[in-house]
Design goal:
Layout lengths: L1 H51 L2 H10 L15 H8 L2 H9 L16 H5 L5 H10 L14 H8 L2 H11 L6 H14 L2 H10 L14 H6 L12 H38 L7 H24 L3 H21 L7 H14 L4 H9 L4 H8 L2 H10 L14 H7 L3 H4 L6 H9 L8 H6 L14 H18 L2 H4 L9 H8 L1 H33 L18 H28 L8 H33 L6 H34 L1
Length: 658
Amino acid sequence: MAICGNVEGAQTESSTTEEKTLSTQNSTSSLKSEDQIELRNRHFKLYLDAVDGDWNSAEKIFEEDKIDITAILSKKGDTALHIAAACGRTGFVKKLLEQMNKEDLAIENNAGNTAFFLAAASGKVEIAEAMMEKNEDVVKIRGFNDMLPLHKAAMAGDKEMVEYLYEATGDELLDDNDRFDLLVNLLHLGLYDIALDLAERHPQVALARDKNEETALHHLARITALRRRIDSSLIRFCKRTAFFLYNEVKRNVIKTCHSVLGKQRVKKKEEQKGNELGLRDRIKQREQRMKQQRRDELSFFVGASNRGRIKQKVRNWIAGAIRQVMYADQQIPDSAFEIVRCLWKQVMLLDESQILEIVRKPHSLVLEAAKQGNPRFLMIIILSYPDLVYEVDENNHTIFHFAAMYRRFFILKQIYRVGLLKDFVVQNIDKDGNNILHLAAKLPPADRPDNESAALHYQMAREMSFFWRVEDILHPVDAEAKNKEGKTPRALFTEEHRELRQKAERWVKDIANGCIMGATLIATVVFAAAFTVPGGINDSGTPNLVRRVSFIIFAISDAIALLFSIFSVLMFLTVISSRYEEADFGRLMYDLGGGLNLLILAVQAVMVMFCATMFLLFNDGLLWVPILVTTMAVLTSFRSLEKYFAHNGEVAHLTGSL
């Protein structure tokens, strides 16, 4: 019995001890979970401070909670430096760097990226410079997908960051694959100056290929020749004018200072023996060389006359000013085609079979350039290798057939300058028996790079005009040749464009009918206003306010509105009564455009007439009323004037393309 009692007592004490132990563990785990939640909240607050760049708040958390400066703040393994660098918080990054060691900058997140790698995409060169001062080796550490920070900056497209990292990285860190990938990224982003420097220093990249087996020349062949387009926005016009004048003044000041500081710069460069010029200096030297080449070309055409060169220089300056101020798009710089020359020169060092392999695989360089409308690329390639003119694809199409299909007449017109070449192109037919005029008779392919959604009658007129131009190239016998389906080019054009012609006819008639109603309404109103003049008339029939300037403006604007509206009605009636044959759409384009212009001017004349009437009514008092109304009228008509200039610009653009 005693033994049983001792056993029971021992079991009771044991159970009590276990309960106390479990209770102690539970309380400890609860304390740990609370600490973890609090620490997580602190890390989240640091994360937000790094995003916002709030160093004062972050510094308090680091000091009070004794959190390590390199603590991980996100599930992606980002530290405060990663977050601030990616968000471009320059001040926050500099404060962090003051408290970090050199080795801390090499910490990578879960994706394998350092903070410097992320900073390369932020566009903040000041952050990259601060990190480089702390640890110069961070520029060498590769990140995601084995990319260098330089490649990350090139993908982001910030030119200043790319220039800085391009010089900081150095050639020894880049292999041929790195250089090729960098070159392709620079070409796609339009950073041609840096790309040209890379191509001149490492011309062997001309032979490298990407995952699609394309070389850098294949990427350059796809540079679309920009077509000039007028930007009708008056606000953007004034803005571009101000920027142009500012840049001209800045350029002249720099040119003046250059003569003063030139000797100092030369002396400084001579003292730096063994050191290469910086990227900016190499770009400037290259620009001067290209300008000298253009001057040499100019002197070749103009002759030795200084007067002629000066005149030509003035014309070029005026043309450049017009391009920068009037047009919305930007011209492709000469450096882009200097890259083509540099790479093609390297290709020409190969034997013929290797050259043809570069040209033809995975697709033809010259045919792609013809498709994109890139004549300068073709000139560079073909002048050094004329046999590429006869290059054909699987359908037996040459560059001129591609030019016909994709409506590149500035390439086609080169046929006139070559004798035997003309016969080859004209007589060459594809697998379906189509000659070059048959291809011009078809609708342009849907993959045309700059396929525009122009108005239907513009499109029809442009198609007809292009067909006529190609027809002029051919002999009358060739122009009437039949393909394997027994169709002549003219019959094929009618068949291909039947639906477009019908749509254009309906569209033009609807527009003309609607405009006739508006023009008739304006003519009716202004005709009635001419006999109900404000202020009334005296016994002799003379208006009482006839001697006031505002009345004269009223009378003149009323007459203009009446005449322009009537003339526009006549032009719209001419459009409606047309036969709408294929050859008529060229004339319809001008008639409809002229009628719309007259109608818009008539509306503006009505606005002027209305403002003049307000000045007549409130001439003796409350002058602020007509001023306010006139201001509102000007703001209201501002947008319509923009549309008016846009329409004229579109007409001029399409007329030039015809």
